Every structure is written in structure tokens, then in C-alpha cells.
Amino acid sequence: MEAKSLLQLTKEPNIKIFSGSSHQDLSQKIADRLGLELGKVMTKKLSNQETCVEIGESVQGEDVYIVQSGCGEINDNLMELLIMINACKIASAGRVTAVIPCFPYARQDKRGESRAPISARLVADMLSTAGADHIITMDLHASQIQGFFDIPVDNLCAEPAALKWIKESISEWRSCTIVSPDAGGAKRATSIADKLNVDFALIHKERKKASGVDGMVLVGDVRYRVAILVDDMADTCGTICHAADKLLSAGATRVYAILTHGIFSGPAITRMNSAGFEAVVVTNTVPQEDKMKHCSKIQVIDISMILAEAIRRTHSGKSVSYLFSHVPS
């Protein structure tokens, strides 16, 4: 009888999903796929521009997931995420997981010159200090960023969604060439080329002066073929737009770009409109609605189902490795 009453008192933690200000549309899609409602949270700026966060419901003993992408007003959104994590932690949440589709400061992952900071490490330390127990992110700019944390990190992959889009949207995909716009992305591009069983090409940047790129050399053949540029991130789009022009001049019939994180800041939209892309395909780790109004070439792959399935599997204690090769339905 006593054992039965103890079992009745033992309550499995529920999933609670809260959204930061950076990408509420993606947060809502994740919640919808899990059949949940977003948790109540109020965020505001005080008159002195401090961020104030108030969690509007009990999280005691619950499995909390906070969705906040590293985009828009990055510093404000990062601070908001840290405060939300800490607010849930001191409210006795059972576990707090930060779901960060696009990791902020990911490109500052090493010292390029003396006295330069490693800001990605600093962000990792801040997240841990705030009280995060687990991080879920997607396509880190450098996978070694996972080593900056002393808590578990799941670095999900947009590759299965990209492969699905290629097969469904490009009729000549069996004879296409996957192209990396620089040497750093070669591993990512060859992985996709191997899975499609197609050719791979690489664009090498020639630097005669340290101050800039003097030219691009294409290593591989794209004549009379569809060329698909693959990269993890595009910010001002200088590299991929120059690469697209190089591929067209080398005889490619059409050029597509497939990117995980479409930051598209500064002159990016103007450059893409002027470049010879058939389409620039990005995931919705970063909001794209406003940018799509100014560039008709942008197409979006929804990755909310991947993040939702990662949350479901994490909550139930299952492996997320299935998501590295499959797109959940």
C-alpha cells in the first residue's frame, strides 16, 4: 500500500517549451509538432535598456527547453537567453536545455591573430554558468566548439533535409556536381556528394596579397552540369556570389546554393539578386520572411521537425543519432 502511494506521488516531468524573442515562428512550429503550447514568458526592455524576463508559469521539476537563435540583435538575444535559463534554474526546473538553432559567435572559434578573443568559448562558459544542463544546436561552424562545453551538446545536421530537397527539386540531380566554395567546407560538401553518388568540386581562393582574394580557381569539372554550392553559413554572401559567377563562366548550366544558416547581412541581398543563382536554399534556423520579400531567389527548408524530434528523444532518454541520416516525417 505504501509503495503504491509512493508511485502515485512520483510524477514524470513534463516538457515545457519557452521561446525567446529571436525566432518565435520556429518555436511555435516546434511546439505544434510536439502537440504542446509554448510556455508563458514575458520579456521587456527597461528604460535603461536592461533586459527583464519573467517566466509566467511553474517549471518546478519540469524538463524545460528554451528556443533562441543567434540572429537579429545577437547580443540582446544572447543576454535574454542567459536570463531565461537562469530564471528557470532558480525556479527549480528539473533540467534546462538551450535550443540554439544558429549558435552565436560560432565564427570566433580560434585565435586568428595575437590578442584576439575566442568568443565562442566565452559564450559556452556563459551558457554553462547561467545554468544550462544541455545544448541542442545545428551545424556548428566548427564542430570542435562542442569541446568548449563541459555539458552535453547535440550538434544536429541539416544534411538529410538538404539531400531531400535536392532529390525533390532538381530533376537532374543524378548528374550534378556538389561544390564547396572554399577548402574549409570540403568535408561537408564531399559528404553530400558521396550520399548522392555524384562528383565533387572545390573552389580555391588565390591570395597574392594578404589583404584580399585576387582570384578563384575551380578544381573539378562543372561543364554542362548543374552545380550545387554547399556551405554552413552565408553572411554578406561575397564568397558564394563570386563562386556562382566562377561556376557559370566554367560552363555550369545552373547554379544553386544550399546553406544551413542564411544570415544575409549588409550587401547580401543586393549581391544575390545580381548573381546568377537559380535559387539560394536556406533552412529556417534564422527568420527569412523579410529577406524573401526583397530576394525572390531565397527558398526555405523547414527544420522544425528535426529540432522537435531531438527534443522528444532527449526528453524520453533516446539517442538522437537517427537524426543524422533521416528527416522525421
TrEMBL record:
Its cofactor is Mg(2+). The keyword ATP-binding applies. GO terms for biological process: 5-phosphoribose 1-diphosphate biosynthetic process; purine nucleotide biosynthetic process; ribonucleoside monophosphate biosynthetic process. Pathway: Metabolic intermediate biosynthesis; 5-phospho-alpha-D-ribose 1-diphosphate biosynthesis; 5-phospho-alpha-D-ribose 1-diphosphate from D-ribose 5-phosphate (route I): step 1/1. It comes from the Eukaryota. One of its GO terms (molecular function) is kinase activity. It is an enzyme of class 2 (transferase). InterPro entries: PRib_PP_synth_CS, Pribosyltran_N, PRTase-like, PRTase_dom, Rib-P_diPkinase. GO terms for cellular component: cytoplasm; ribose phosphate diphosphokinase complex. Keywords: ATP-binding, Kinase, Magnesium, Metal-binding, Nucleotide biosynthesis, Nucleotide-binding, Transferase. Coiled coil: none annotated. Its EC number is 2.7.6.1. It holds the Pfam family Pribosyl_synth. Residues 15-131 form the Ribose-phosphate pyrophosphokinase N-terminal domain. Homodimer. The active form is probably a hexamer composed of 3 homodimers. Belongs to the ribose-phosphate pyrophosphokinase family. Catalyzes the synthesis of phosphoribosylpyrophosphate (PRPP) that is essential for nucleotide synthesis. NCBIfam families: PRK01259.1 (NF002320), ribP_PPkin (TIGR01251). This is Ribose-phosphate pyrophosphokinase 1. It comes from Ovis ammon polii. The lineage of its organism: Eukaryota, Metazoa, Chordata, Craniata, Vertebrata.
